[in-house]
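Q: Convert this sequence to structure tokens.
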Amino acid sequence: MHDEASELTSLVNECDKEPIHLLGRIQNHGFMIVVDREGAITHLSENLGSFASIPQDKLIGHSFWKLLDRKLIHAIRGAQSQAMILGKASYLHSVSLPHCEDIFDLCVHQSAEHLILEFEQTESTGKYEGVITALMAQMSMFSELEDLYEGLVESVRTATGYDRVMLYQFLSDGSGEVIAESTSSDMTPFLGLRYPASDIPRQARQLYKKNLIRTISDVNGETFPIIGNNRSDGASIDLSLSRLRAVSEIHIQYLKNMKVGASMSISLIVEGELWGLVACHHNTKKVIPSRLVSQLELFAEMFSLELSRRLVNERIRVSEKANATFTRVLSNLSLGKSLNNAIVQQLSLLKTLIDIDGIGCVFSNEYTKSGAAFSARKIKRLTAILAELPEEEIHQFENLADIHHELADESVAGVLALKISHQPMDYIFLFRNSVVQQVSWAGNPAKRVELKGGKETLTPRASFDKWVENNESTSTPWTTLDIERAKSIRLGVMELTIRHLHEKELLQREAKKRLELLIGELNHRVRNILNLVSAIIGQTSQYKKDIDEFVLSLSSRISALALGHDQLTHASYNSVRFKDLLHNELKAYMIKESSFKIDGPDIRILPYAVTPIVLVFHEMITNAAKYGALSATSNDGRVAITWELEEKGCFIKWEELGGPPLHGLGEEGFGMTVIKSVIPHELKGKASVSTKITGLNAEFLIPRKYIELDTSQKSTQHVTHGDKHQSISTANSEKILTSAYIVEDNLLISLDLKKHLKQLGIDKIDIFGDISSARAALAKGKPSMMFLDVHLGNENTFQLGIEIQKLSIPFLFITGYGAAIELPEELSDVDILTKPVDTTLLKRSIEAFGFKV
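A:
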């Protein structure tokens, strides 16, 4: 029996290694041409003669570009550049070819050294316009996930016309389940059925991530080989991104057994992993036009993002609810002599949080349990197995007997293992009893082995009728909700562990006083900072609706925290000079020295008060820059920050003058909440804010216990924008390329070129999509160098090039037409780079102008 299982595993592994992307054949609803870097045709599909009246022997080895007009060459090279940048296929529609009567849609993608061109006959132009808009509009109607799934399959079936559309979700063990379905009356329903992981081999799952749309137009149709000079090397072409790629014989037989005539799959990617598939089946053959495929591909990306967002929101909701519940559980835990006992005694409370039958704790090699739980011997075996597994915070098992026969147990079947620490191996185990679990499969999931040609091979099952499996040694499956609650338990116990250890350390204060102070201070600061960052993220997200505004606002607030922390670090967690703190926070806005008045006695802020004060003054200066004295509407606005040291503490005044009139604070956002609340709440000080016609006024009181007089004469004040800098000359004769203009109407290509130029050390790069905007920029200033696409829509850049030449600005042409393009006589000496641009050649061309890159 063991030998049969090993042999079956070996065959499954072989299936996982089948090179399905190197089959060397294509489906029959289009043809393929493969071109090398020089433009020579190296391969083509054997069925090309069905579409074009040109002999194949006059194509292979000959230049493909010589067959086409210049406009089409330019379009194909542009699509090639876009495909290389995005790492996926690009599409051209309504393409005419010589010796062909039909009009084609063209799929362009790069495969190593080869440019692969796939041609399919075009359908009517406007037929599929607006498909993606309609599909996404449908998706926005559903608030619940289950409704979203149902709406997805219904909408895709309506848009594509397939007889059956299923949403297939991958489970944690690699198997999958149909969780939503829309089907015609003559199709067998598969809703609720599972499929084993081996139905979709490992390499197929990787291809699903690379190529979001996969179509099989005719299960019973003929396929054609890709041929080269020796008529047999087509299998060396990687067809991972191919639309026409043929299918493994095993998969074709699988579909035939399922009585399917054509199929399509739409990949759903969540957090970089294959979450599921929208699987479409048709009774007869069905060709999906290229225009619709490109629409569905974009829809797959957009829906995956929407699904990711909703799943994250669901996890957040579950986590927040679990945290609130576990907080109540923690409040009942006792920090007695044994942490193990303190936790396991709360089994009844933990059961209200998560459905478990027992609990076990291992701390410092001491094991304590309550309820249905493993013995100490089995726990030892389980922890040894866990030590060999990849590092995870939580391991989940529903059938422990399957992991190792020694873990079979009458009362325990499943466990969540929560790792608390690595050294020593401390764990909390949440146990579940076994239940008789029924799983409905689409046919018997066991693989059949047949002898073909003297070799044993796996064959797909012939029946997909419902097949029920009973698992008697399996627990109820752990849900997402269970995992989120377990995470809350883990974090809560880790905090309890820290508190428990802290109490023990306090008993040894005389021996380890210095160490305890350091640990206590560090632990306090880290936890405060983390809580503060969490609060800033949550509060900022409430008031910032635009993602760019949210990121900018959040980044500036986190930077303010980091700046305060840096000053503490440089001061070795001693006090920080108040003037330095203000200068560091305000320096970005000191465009002229007269904008600020900073005056007061030399004082230092103790470490605990630094972070609150930095946050408050960050919000004050941000508010002044957006709405107050330093805003764009104020030409001569000023800010005065003055302070006095009295018995109660330091009184700080903020006064804005010359800003736009203020008649009130308006709607109170997170920033104003920080200004008003942080110092009173964190430091038990005072804060008041008022508005005058001249601008915003504020007063703060920092209690005396957080203030020191500065007795040192040293200052670490940073240079502000108002200071004058001494210019430094250099004897280096090489020119430095400091700025560049890119004139290119394809955004993706221009952004890719900008990335390459950034890598060469050019910091200031501007992009223009048309000639008029480039001329307007040149009227204001000259860049070090320019890069021009020859054709921008219906205009060329030759005249612009002549104008640039007169301005003595070095420049290059970049075009999809290649170096053979005819330039005006005035520009005959200008270098031309061919798309896609080679980085090495780009660097060499720039250096030819004498620039150092």
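The chain has a mean pLDDT of 78.
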